[in-house]
């Protein structure tokens, strides 16, 4: 709903009075960052990307819903001369603009120090003053209500995958959902990722993305490379797809049946260069995102972005006010290539040190191996303004030799800018009361549909239909990280019990073959679904009683969150995000009513996994009310993205408080 138009005026803040849920405008005086630092504790966020201290009016337009606003926001749309927007727009309502005038505010010397919106008639009460930098500004002088200052960011996600356009795992989920959650909170958000075409049905996911006819040249790999950009605006987000022939081939985003693509360094270097250009050259909604933005580089594929900002743009005055955050979803993959490939990255020659990496002697492959390499993720950790990992537990683990994959010392040295924020889950996609992929729906108050999902799953997979038999599920990549070797060693013994075990996964060939072998050995108890299928993953999540996750390490883990939402009880190795999100069952707590949402075990071993699963199975069989309590407590947990988005906003604010990364010799030069 369009309600209020504002002009493009810096230093305006929009303030919500939560008590009466009535939006009102309050004046924020012109201040430097320092004043806002003082407000950190009492504001939802306090920094902006696109125009410092200009507040996007989108929140106001939508009366808090944040659902509108095409790439560029309402006021941008209105000022667009060429009307070239492909975004939906907030149509301005002139009627609602009449009440506001702009008033300059001057200090004793007469210098303008701020602006305020002045009501034209009789509404002074709605525009109470917010004195800057004073702690008591949290309370409205008139009503005593708390004041929240809404300041919006211009955020650019750079990622190798974003659901629903591309997804091979959790990275796709997060980069599909978090941008939407931030856009819904009023931020201007762009996601830049490749336009993968593999000749299969998944190509149609890009069908609505239109060519922006903005061919752009970037320099890397010894020459000029040309990319083009496709764009779709949906759910408040500008989805920008980088197009290049190297993204058009059969397979997944990273490889095919023969393994990882040999030119991945090229493909993702290109992505990073293109992503750095996108905010400068793409007129989304009529206006570019501009230089004062915040880049969120996800994992190593996007890790060159902070390095490029620091090495290629900032020294020349571009992106001087931008900030970057490296979001680590998985430290095990760092984009390491031989040192001679440095020249491919399109970085100035004197920046080698940023990505320089020397393997320890024990990790070298032969006597003449000097261990020299380039490490893109390391470069990102060095040059990014902030670092986020996807859970607090993991943010601690990566600073230890056990969890740091060789980067623990570097990460420890950057602890002051390192934060862990637990992922959320998409409550629309993953909701047992409305999930389009499952045969019956159910809720916290009526669980009857869950057993129907279980029966349907047993039928679908050709297992004996036995609603009373405990059904254990596993969903995930079949690799070392997921503890698949431990699962493999425990399965024959688990099959001696009266349980059913269903696995969905793809990955290493040996594990896929093993799943087929297990199926032939235990036809009544085991089913392995080799491949990647989102609908099947939903049906296993809904139809299982227990979800097992013996991950060796798990930065956050999404499947345990989905499982809890679906009343499926997780049994997990106590590590990283699994430790943070699954609360161990205690039947004696709460005067015998119990507490906890699943079982955690540690250390990771076949014996401990089996013991935890047996306790879970025993509880399922013999303690029905305890089981129902476990299911319900899991379903009640709030892992919505909105929670996580608020924490991201906080870190965005901190990113802008500090000056951006500048290489030390440049500091000295000045
Ligand atoms: N065969 C299959 N068919 C269908 N769907 C499948 C599938 N295999 C996996 N999935 C889906 O892919 C996602 C996997 O997410 P995870 O968070 O568990 O792991 P992943 O290791 O990919 O992500 C990394 O990034 C995420 C996001 O930050 C972190 O949570 C995680 O710890 C980190 O390892 C889930 O949505 C799951 O349902």
TrEMBL record:
It is found in: Plastid, Amyloplast; Plastid, Chloroplast. Keywords: Amyloplast, Chloroplast, Glycosyltransferase, Plastid, Starch biosynthesis, Transferase, Transit peptide. The keyword Flavoprotein does not apply. Its EC number is 2.4.1.21. Residues 58-96 are annotated as: Disordered. Residues 65-75 have a biased composition (Gly residues). This is starch synthase.
């Amino acid at each position: 709903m369009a309600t209020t138009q504002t002009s493009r005026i810096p230093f305006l803040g929009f303030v919500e009075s939560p008590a009466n849920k009535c939006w009102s405008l309050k004046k924020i005086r012109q201040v430097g960052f320092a004043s806002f630092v003082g407000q950190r504790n009492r504001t939802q966020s306090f920094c902006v990307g696109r125009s410092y201290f200009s507040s996007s009016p989108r929140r106001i337009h939508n009366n808090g819903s944040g659902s509108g606003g095409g790439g560029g926001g309402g006021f941008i749309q209105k000022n667009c001369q060429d009307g070239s927007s492909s975004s939906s727009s907030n149509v301005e309502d002139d009627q609602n603009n009449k009440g506001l005038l702009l008033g300059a505010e001057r200090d004793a010397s007469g210098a303008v120090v701020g602006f305020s919106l002045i009501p034209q008639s009789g509404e002074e009460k709605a525009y109470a003053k917010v004195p800057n930098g004073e702690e008591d500004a949290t309370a409205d002088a008139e009503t005593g209500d708390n004041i929240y200052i809404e300041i919006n960011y211009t955020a650019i996600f750079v990622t190798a995958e974003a659901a629903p356009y591309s997804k091979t795992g959790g990275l796709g989920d997060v980069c599909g959902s978090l941008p939407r959650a931030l856009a819904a909170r009023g931020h201007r958000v762009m996601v830049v990722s490749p336009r993968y075409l593999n000749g299969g049905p998944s190509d149609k996911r890009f069908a609505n993305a239109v060519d922006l006819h903005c061919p752009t040249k970037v320099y890397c790999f010894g020459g000029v490379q040309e990319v083009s950009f496709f764009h779709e605006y949906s759910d408040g987000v500008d989805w920008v797809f980088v197009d290049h022939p190297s993204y058009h081939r059969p397979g997944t985003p990273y490889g095919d049946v023969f393994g990882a693509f040999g030119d991945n360094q090229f493909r993702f270097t290109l992505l990073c260069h293109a992503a750095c250009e996108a905010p400068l050259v793409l007129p989304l909604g009529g206006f570019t995102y501009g230089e004062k933005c915040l880049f969120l580089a996800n994992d190593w594929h996007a890790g060159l972005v902070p390095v490029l900002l620091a090495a290629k743009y900032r020294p020349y005055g571009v992106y001087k006010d931008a900030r970057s955050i490296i979001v680590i979803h998985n430290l095990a993959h760092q984009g390491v290539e031989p040192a001679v490939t440095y020249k491919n990255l399109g970085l100035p020659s004197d920046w080698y040190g940023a990505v320089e990496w020397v393997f320890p002697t024990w990790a070298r492959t032969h006597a003449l191996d000097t261990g020299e390499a380039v490490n893109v993720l390391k470069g990102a950790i060095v040059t990014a303004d902030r670092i986020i990992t996807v859970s607090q537990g993991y943010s601690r683990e990566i600073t230890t030799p056990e969890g740091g994959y060789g980067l623990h010392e570097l990460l420890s040295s950057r602890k002051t800018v390192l934060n862990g924020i637990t992922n959320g889950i998409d409550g629309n996609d993953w909701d047992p009361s409305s999930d389009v992929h499952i045969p019956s729906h159910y809720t916290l108050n009526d669980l009857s549909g869950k057993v129907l999902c279980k029966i349907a799953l047993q039928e679908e997979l050709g297992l004996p239909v036995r609603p009373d038999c405990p059904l254990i599920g596993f969903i995930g990549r079949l690799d070392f990280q997921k503890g698949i070797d431990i699962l493999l060693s425990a399965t024959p013994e688990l099959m001696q019990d009266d349980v059913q075990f269903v696995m969905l996964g793809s990955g290493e060939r040996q594990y896929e073959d093993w799943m087929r072998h297990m199926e032939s050995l235990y036809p009544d108890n085991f089913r392995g679904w080799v491949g990647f299928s989102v609908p099947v993953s939903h049906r296993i999540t809904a139809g299982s009683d227990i979800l097992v996750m013996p991950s060796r390490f798990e930065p956050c883990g999404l499947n345990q969150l989905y499982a809890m939402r679906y009343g499926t009880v997780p049994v997990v190795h106590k590590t990283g995000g699994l430790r943070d999100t699954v609360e161990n069952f205690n039947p004696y707590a709460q005067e015998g009513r119990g507490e906890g949402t699943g079982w955690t075990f540690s250390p990771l071993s076949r014996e401990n996994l089996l013991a935890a699963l047996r306790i879970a199975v025993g509880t399922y069989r013999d303690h029905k009310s305890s089981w129902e309590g476990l299911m319900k407590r899991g379903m009640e947990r709030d892992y919505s993205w909105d929670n996580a988005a608020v924490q991201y906003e906080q870190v965005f604010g901190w990113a802008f408080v500090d000056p951006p990364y500048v290489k030390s010799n440049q500091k000295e030069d000045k």
